[in-house]
Amino acid sequence: MSKTYNIAVLKGDGIGPEITDATIQVLQATEETSNFKLNLQYGDAGFYCIAKHGTNLPEETVALLRRTDACLKGPMTTPEEVGAPVSAAVKIRKIFNLYANVRPCRTFPNVESLKPNLDFVVVRENTEGLYAGAEFLAAPGVGIAYRIITTEASTRVAEFAFKLAEKRKKHLTYVHKGNILRITDGIFKDAVKTVAKNHPTVTVDDQHIDAITMQLIKKPEFFDVIVTTNLFGDIVSDEAAQVVGGLGLAAGANIGDTYGMFEPVHGSAPKYTGMNRANPISIIMAAALMLDHLGEGEAAAKIEKAVTEVLSEGKVRTMDLGGTATTTDMADAITAKVRQS
Ligand code: NAD
Q1: Which CATH number is correct for 1-102+248-341, 2.60.40.290, 1.20.120.80, 3.40.718.10, 3.40.50.150?
Q2: Is residue 9 within 8 Å of 43, Cβ to Cβ?
Q3: Per CATH, the architecture of 114-243 is what?
Q4: Alpha-carbon distance 174 to 196, whole Å?
Q5: Whose CA is nearest to atom 25 of ligand 1?
Q6: Cβ proximity of 337 and 315 under 8 Å
């Protein structure tokens, strides 16, 4: 009997609904050619649902996530005004303790990258640090943000990154600013060094956050697994995505011990809303990461192969790749390749 996975789908804002629909088409083709079923269950979350529910993450959506095996999430708009709701993605990561944000960075055929044949992964601590957004106004014109770094959170993300490195090229680079942030990054560094003792086959080195932003451009082939704190990881992974070909291709996984949420690295790109122009590959690759996480590695590989073949042929190229193809053209091309496999 075939297995059924319950998947929560949050389409999000801006280009989210278009690229998520494109992904569902690819997922359904994958399901047709595999031995499992996907029970897709749709939920509301994001900026658009504040007017409808008074929040960007309604309780019903949290309940939906709780009864599913994984979540496929489109990008969501987060307003920047003081007092606006905290990002829905940040809330979900916290509620479900999705402590490792995993962003694979590899080159694709026919896609311009800084150097050829790159393949590395950024692992970002996902629950604390400056990105948690804990800040307040101490006095008019004086704002204070907390950068909370704990041994517990640093240790579990380091453990995750070392295990990943063991399955890959066995090289881990940890990134910090320990010369300035001696206490918080001191805790992070100590945690990584402690975990390293249990993974003797992995070669370990470290870089300061400012140095790695330069090294990623100068020598990206040096890296295998990069592990860092939340905000540093946010910045480094966008840079890394551009180094290998751009945000339109970059997928991310948010992994905890009991749940996973899968999303594109990019945001809602509001200026392209409803234009059928965005590249859906980012979230299609996120769906592949989701299937792999659920134990359906063969189906995930099928999607990756289909994406690689479409890019390799070079006939269907969205505007970010220098072409004129639409979101639906790209989805159709990838779907056709999946069906042929
Ligand atoms: P963005 O990633 O949405 O867009 C930056 C630029 O990247 C776009 O203008 C576009 O040129 C390009 N781009 C992004 N995705 C693309 C795609 N699929 N195809 C082709 N080109 C693409 O970043 P932003 O403009 O800084 O943020 C917009 C909104 O998204 C903000 O409200 C921000 O808070 C939010 N955001 C959400 C998430 C998330 O949901 N996890 C992540 C990042 C940003």
Answers
A1: 3.40.718.10
A2: yes
A3: 3-Layer(aba) Sandwich (3.40)
A4: 11
A5: 269
A6: no
Would you call 292 a catalytic residue per the annotation?
no
Catalytic residue among 37, 210, 218, 219: 210
**131, 174, 259, 272: the active-site residue:** 131
Of the pLDDT bands very low, low, confident and very high (cuts 50, 70, 90), residue 13 is very high
- For ligand 1, atom 42, which residue shows the shortest CA distance? 267
Catalytic, 238? Answer yes
Closest-CA residue, ligand 1 atom 23, reads: 267
**pLDDT tens digits, 106-123:** 999 999 999 999 999 999
- 48 catalytic per annotation: no
The three-class DSSP label of residue 100 is strand
**Which tokens go with 180?**
């300035």
Annotated catalytic residue 177: yes
Residue 2: how many other CB atoms lie within 10 Å: 8
- Assess whether pLDDT exceeds 90 at residue 286: yes
Residues 140-180: pLDDT tens digits? 999 999 999 999 999 999 999 999 999 999 999 999 999 99
Q: How far is the CA of 268 from the centre of ligand 1 (A)?
A: 5
- pLDDT for res 84: 86
| Domain range list for the chain | 1-102+248-341, 114-243
**Residue 82, pLDDT score:** 84
